[in-house]
Amino acid sequence: MTDLISASKHALLSPNLFIRHTSGTRLRRYQQGVCEAVCDSVLNRRGLSFVVMFPRQSGKNELQAQLETYLLALFCNTPVEIVKVSPTLKPQAQNAMRRLERTLKKNLYLSSAWQKEAGTIYRVQEARIHFLSGAPESSIVGATASLLLEVDEAQDVLPAKFDKDIAPMTASTCATRVFWGTAWTSSSLLGRELRAASAAEKRDGVRRVFRLTADDVAAELPAYKASLADTLARLGRAHPLVRTQYYSEEIDGLGGLFPPDRLARMQSPAVTQIMSVVPEASKRYALLLDVAGADEGVRSADGSVEMANPGRDATALTLVEICLPENGGLPTYRPRLRRQWIGSDTAALLPQIRALALEWQVQTLVVDATGVGAGLTSMLESALPGRVKPFTFNVSSKSRLGWDFLGLVDSGRWQEDLYPPDAPGEQARWQREFFAQLAACQFEVLPGPEQRMKWSVPDGNRDAISGELMHDDWMLSAALAATLDGHDWPISSGPALIVPAKDPLKELDRGF
Fold this sequence. Notes:
By secondary structure, this protein is α/β, with parallel strands linked by helices.
């Protein structure tokens, strides 16, 4: 009891002084302003709604736990309720509970004064905090936030869920509300509340929006500055995840994935008449193969099938040179050859692909192993042992591939030597088709903590020049390069590809 009395007395000091005295934690300058504003609204029953956008790894969660500990100490003799909603119970709400526990245990006065009730409720005498899931299927109706309502990672909580089940928790109390998170799309809950809070700021001049960038954090933390530089080098400043998670910039949830400025970053200054150069022994090459039909029947985790672009019937191969920087870091990819097969079966494809791999001494072959591609992948693994890297398309893996490919592009690591606009020949035509597919590609960012992205050339698009239906074979083939970023490239070009003594071509009749 003595500890609680001391805690309550010290909490009458400013929240920042309380946190420093009782936990030894000194909040950063950008954290202090948030803490003071929220506590002022709570203590004076102002009922304000705040939006706090912090970059990733900038101390948002630590600030939350310290703020919650302060309020539990200050109101320990009053029957008040704090409600904190996370997008999911596991792992996000559980992580938030662990952070609060850790902070309570380190607190000078509260280390032995708190209790856990009913699995998701923490109590300090009469003050309680409830941790709830904001997942669409969660049943949370009935909880009341008398002191404070927090929505963590609010960009991942559906607005409809908030309006129906969460907002009523403050209807009778006029409790302060805080929406924490990182920027995402303008249609997210965080984006909506950002505009509402900004409008309220303009009306009365009371600050409600705390929107920081990675540069603000780096100004106080040298280690963060170094990490930021590494991220920018890897993904590029224009990458959607850098813009949202580091610079608090919203992105549109729908639109073209490859606008003109992104396409321009993919094009090297060089202009060539011939892309198919002679292989050089001192250079490294990889082969990227999108097998016909890979996007037909993309299977999701629940077993359903999504038809992203029905009717695709071409197998597309992109052969790239791997250019490793002298000072280390991620490679740059330069296309050197394209091939396309329409309507060819596995028996016809296997010897041609193997011959290309042998001719170019390809170190790695990334092969689409989805659906009909599984058989071809298996045969290539037998024909070129140790060189084949299978990739299976599904809703989740294609989303990750899209994000990773954008990082590769935005950091300038896809460099395409351009043909003149009127250059004849298949290589020039296939390059034009590749860029046409990129320009036509549309994306949609799905709501939810997975941050999944659907991206494809919409069904029915036609090439502006030929009038033929446009697919996305070349685009998906190129995107497979993103799977090579984690590859451990040998210093030399590696041993020559050796055809196994048991020629898999002779096994075709038995295998297919």
